[in-house]
């Protein structure tokens, strides 16, 4: 081999490297994992699978759901926090794991902001203060008057200590200036049973488990903690309409990923999320869960939203002196 031939042979691999690097860097060029930090069959699981099918069609690679349940979503969330920031590990997260948990658990194994790339808000489900239809009051003013006249706290139920229903109920009492007493249940159904039996005064929850009883006239929504009334329940007034404009409390789901995902990939995922939320499949799925489709926030706006949720619920936990076991 001549000297010139040897020089050409040595230079060919180097010349090929930029093209090779570009091919290796094209995203996605292999399956993307969507972690669901709860068991299969639930709301987050259904959202992840529907969204994944949409993204598969758009990006041409499998988007595989990986259910990692346990500890109220903290196990799967921690796994994502420890994953590489290459755009191949995503999570459909929730207000439980990324809004409330940071204020509840001192030993949390992830930081809700530093350890994640927040991509976009999927949906919101406003909390509603519910009463038995036979209660002597029909609105917040009547509730306040009743509680102050009798001099005993209003009992309210939720799906568990430290749940968003619990914290929003505590916030409701503070906002109204009345004493409240929380009663913890193992889910929404047993709380509803006691409310209908007259053994519980109020429930703080979203509408997913109670819509049938409200439309059937056995339960009454006193106030919905959103900016506008729910389209499906137009007779339930907002807190703002009754003189409490700052009382906004939502359960929410969002799309995030491990920390350090490149901005270009984040932008593409945010646009794809918005595209899925514009589909009939996506909107009908969320409305069936009593959730309001979102998708309007940019990644920066959604990151600021998560930060605000962490701050406000940590303050409620502190003031209400909520204690949970890890």
TrEMBL record:
Keywords: Signal
PROSITE patterns recorded: TAT
CDD domains assigned: PBP2_Bug_TTT
Acyltransferase recorded as keyword: no
Region forming the signal peptide: 1-23
Alphabetical list of InterPro entries matching this protein: BUG (IPR005064), Bug_dom1 (IPR042100), TAT_signal (IPR006311)
Annotated family: Belongs to the UPF0065 (bug) family.
Alphabetical list of PANTHER family matching this protein: BLR1237 PROTEIN, TRICARBOXYLATE-BINDING PROTEIN
Protein's UniProt name: Tripartite tricarboxylate transporter substrate binding protein
Species name: Sabulicella glaciei
């Amino acid at each position: 081999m001549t000297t010139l031939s040897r020089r050409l042979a040595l230079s060919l691999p180097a010349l090929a490297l930029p093209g090779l690097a570009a091919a290796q860097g094209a995203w996605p060029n292999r399956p993307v994992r969507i972690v669901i930090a709860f068991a299969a069959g639930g709301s987050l699981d259904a959202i992840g699978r529907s969204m994944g099918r949409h993204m598969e069609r758009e990006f041409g690679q499998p988007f595989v759901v990986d259910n990692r349940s346990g500890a109220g979503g903290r196990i799967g969330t921690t796994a994502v926090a420890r994953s590489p920031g290459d755009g191949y590990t995503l999570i459909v997260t929730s207000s439980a794991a990324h809004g409330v948990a940071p204020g509840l658990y001192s030993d949390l194994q992830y930081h809700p902001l530093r350890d994640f790339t927040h991509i976009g808000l999927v949906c919101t489900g406003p909390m509603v203060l519910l009463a038995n239809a036979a209660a002597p009051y029909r609105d917040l003013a009547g509730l306040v008057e009743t509680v102050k006249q009798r001099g005993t706290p209003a009992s309210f139920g939720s799906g568990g200590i430290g749940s968003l229903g619990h914290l929003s109920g505590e916030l409701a009492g503070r906002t109204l200036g009345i004493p409240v007493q929380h009663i913890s249940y193992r889910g929404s159904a047993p709380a509803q049973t006691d409310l209908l039996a007259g053994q519980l005064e109020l429930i703080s929850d979203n509408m997913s488990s109670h819509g049938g009883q409200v439309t059937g006239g056995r339960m009454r929504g006193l106030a919905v903690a959103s900016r506008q009334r729910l389209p499906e329940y137009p007779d339930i007034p907002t807190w703002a309409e009754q003189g409490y404009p700052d009382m906004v409390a939502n359960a929410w789901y969002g799309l995030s990923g491990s920390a350090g995902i490149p901005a270009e990939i984040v932008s593409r995922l945010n646009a794809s999320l918005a595209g899925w939320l514009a589909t009939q499949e996506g909107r009908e799925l969320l409305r069936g869960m009593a959730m309001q489709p979102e998708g309007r926030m940019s990644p920066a706006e959604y990151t600021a939203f998560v930060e605000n949720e962490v701050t406000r619920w940590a303050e409620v936990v502190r003031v209400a002196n909520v204690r949970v076991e890890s």
